[in-house]
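Input.
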Amino acid sequence: MTSRCKIIQLPKIADPRGNLTFIEENRHVPFEIKRVYYLYDVPGGETRAGHAHKKLQQFVIAVSGSFDVIVNDGFEKKRHHLNRSYSGLYIPPMMWREIVNFSSASVCLVLASELYDEKDYIRNFATFRAMTKRTHALRSPRKRMAAY
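Output.
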């Protein structure tokens, strides 16, 4: 369910000299932060991501500019527009994501729950879709009963 992806508001301390926002693991994001990376200088029209993770959780923030994050659980697709540095999108495991529509000079900051591990990536949408169908079938009580 794409509803598992949530926009989370972060603390914003307003000051005439400039605002401050902070993020604390297991408080503002629902995981321990093990890796931080950012995307920048993305050429117009480019798409980033285009994959899912088996166990990695992410929190995506537009620290500058704006972009859209399209999430897909294998059954439903939803677009989130990010353009505020004091809010971000939580993305749980097993959610296909694409980042599109980057504005000029935008910066996408990503907080990740795991260190980089290529084995955690699902880079083919057909493979992802097959995995989500299988998981959905196992969780659905009617389908489990039909299997007997």
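Residues 143-148 have pLDDT under 50 and may be disordered.
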